[in-house]
Amino acid sequence: MGAQMRIYRQRIKSVNSIKKITNAMELIAAARVIKARQRATEAMPYTTALTRAVSAVASNTNEDHPLTTSITDAKRAGVVIITADRGLAGAYSVAALKRAAELVALLESEGKEVVPYLVGRKAVSYYKFRKREYAQEWTGFTDAPTFENAKEIADRITADFLKEYAEGGMDEIHLVYTRFRSMVRQDPHVLRLLPLEVVDKDVDGDSDRGLDFTVQHYDEGQLAPEYDFEPSASEVLDRLLPKYVRNRIYTALLSSSASELAARQRAMKSATDNATELIKTYQRLANQARQAGITQEISEIVGGANALADAKK
């Protein structure tokens, strides 16, 4: 019984140590997710304004711009997949990778060659373990992304999109990220980033194939504004669209960051609660073992006393 008691005490001590770590990680994630949510919220007004500007230019011109002209027989599609650099965040990265796998299967069923662009060590590990090829990886910033990180990603995929197909260029660019809705709900989402197309949905709509930008609505009887572009609509698009792509990726990175921290907070809280229950279980088993040991000792004493009494008779 003494050996069993030592085992239970060692396990209680180990679980207590783990509980302290998970509790500390929960508190850190809870503190950081507030700032991450604030950054994502502050970035949305500019994204909305830029979206409306691009929408206005694309809706009021017949300009044949490469970033807004869809290819009917697209042959190659790039997919940017945003996951986490670190684990201990529940199913956050797994859900994004699963959504990306569904998108890849859909694109391949349409006869398109899929080229992944990976953000986060979890996505890189996933592809390397399965010996799958990818175009480029970006790691080390998923929990606190900066605009420079978004610019680097956006410039690479935009450059690949503008290349000719024979030179390895992309006909489409899709983005898979996790959209933050609340502290208890984060949804993996697919956005077709390039080429842009006007769709009659809001900026964060639920279109499976992605949404690109908002069409401005006007009430019945209200006149829609007319636009005059200077120096030309083409030059306005040349300036606006790269900014749009960079900002859209930046917003996706911020939303994914907030989602990652919220998922990590929930996972660590669950781990802490499980550790508490496990400690209670081990304490109960240790008490049972101690009681069993005491009962055995009493039985041995009583048995010995009875034996001595019988011997004296």
Automatic annotation (TrEMBL):
Localization per Swiss-Prot or TrEMBL: Cell membrane; Membrane
The protein's name in its UniProt record: ATP synthase gamma chain
Major localization class: membrane
Residues of the signal peptide: none
Quaternary structure and partners: F-type ATPases have 2 components, CF(1) - the catalytic core - and CF(0) - the membrane proton channel. CF(1) has five subunits: alpha(3), beta(3), gamma(1), delta(1), epsilon(1). CF(0) has three main subunits: a, b and c.
GO CC term, one of those recorded: proton-transporting ATP synthase complex
Keyword Cell membrane in annotation: yes
GO molecular function, one term: proton-transporting ATP synthase activity, rotational mechanism
HAMAP family: ATP_synth_gamma_bact
SUPFAM superfamilies tied to this protein: ATP synthase (F1-ATPase), gamma subunit
Protein family (similarity comment): Belongs to the ATPase gamma chain family.
Listed transmembrane segments: none
Protein species of origin: Humibacillus xanthopallidus
Membrane topology classification: Peripheral membrane protein
A Pfam family the protein falls into: ATP-synt
Keywords for this protein: ATP synthesis, Cell membrane, CF(1), Hydrogen ion transport, Ion transport, Membrane, Transport
Role summary: Produces ATP from ADP in the presence of a proton gradient across the membrane. The gamma chain is believed to be important in regulating ATPase activity and the flow of protons through the CF(0) complex.
Biological process (GO), any one: proton motive force-driven plasma membrane ATP synthesis
Gene designation: atpG
InterPro entries named among the record's database cross-references: ATP_synth_F1_ATPase_gsu (IPR035968), ATP_synth_F1_gsu (IPR000131), ATP_synth_F1_gsu_CS (IPR023632)
CDD domains in alphabetical order: F1-ATPase_gamma
